[in-house]
Predict the structure.
Amino acid sequence: MRASVVCGLGGYVPERLVTNDDLSERLDTTDAWIHSRTGIRARRMISSGAATSDLAVEAGHRALKSADEAAVDVVVLATTTPDRPCPATAPEVAARLGVGTVPAFDVAAVCSGFLYALATAAGLIASGTADRALVIAAEAFTTIIDPQDRSTAVIFGDGAGAVVLRVGDPAEPGALGPMVLGSDGDHSDLIEVPAGGSRQRASGRPAAPGEQYFQMRGRDTYRHAVERMTAASRQAVERAGWTTAQVDRLAAHQANARILEAVAERLGVPAERQLSNIAYMGNTGGASIPLLLADTAASGRLRAGHRVLLTAFGGGLAWGAATLSWPRLGPVTDPRTP
Ligand code: UT7
């Protein structure tokens, strides 16, 4: 069986730091509210003139550098914030990375984008279409947030993460276990950007004020996030032949610190085994898992041999979970390094 083995990792965040106090200056909110409800103290934000591809290229470059070999046969980019509605952002990213005229395309699964992109790339490797894949998740999420909406502006940040996959053996360290993915479009309105797509354009009516921005029904989303990530995690662990007690590191989408705590508690994963960087990165959508992996691999919190459980949830609704034993990788750069 042609398994997909993680052999490179990189992360990158823009330099501009926005603290809760910075936001409190222009929004009716406080550091105390934001931190107690979300666990967030600060987030990163792209500078004027930058775009998702800039973050993706930097994270991709770092992942290729940490890999055993820089060549790849395909580039899959997960993003909610493509540089333009058309064409996909991945071909430009591939060209700028100098990986040649390989297939490159975007995957849209919002905060679960990385896991969906990972599953897509693993499928291309399993079928023999590719031997090596670069999977990037990059989000300039702050570009779709209404700067005046205190319920979302305090949560989201920008960043990117990437992994290199190579064909290998399912028993190797770094081999992806069976993945669990799911969606429920009956609740597509919980997280949405209402305008800018074919439905609004075909209606012939201009977007109403605010409709071009990301909107989220926080409370309902919260409930679904805990339920779906817990259930998907249990399934992935079971399919891998593990028990949740054997999970050394839980790398969950950094949605909200309270969601992470609830998922870890339901799974019976002790707090010290949970990886988290939401306090200084915020919620970076689909980028949060690979960014978290790069961050904690660089700091030594995530080490070779750890049994790692990944899980994500977000708009769609879409969710997923995956397992792997963490491999020995080349040096991983701290994503905050400029
Ligand atoms: O990443 C994709 C998936 N996303 C998620 O998983 C996010 C899930 N949801 C959440 O993280 C939380 O629901 C939020 C952090 C978004 C909100 O926390 P909450 O505890 O669910 O608050 P709420 O939306 O129920 O609002 C409670 C109150 C409201 O005031 P009233 O109606 O009780 O008077 C809000 O207007 O808090 C108010 N509020 C704020 N107050 C100060 C909302 N945002 C703020 C704010 N500062 N920034």
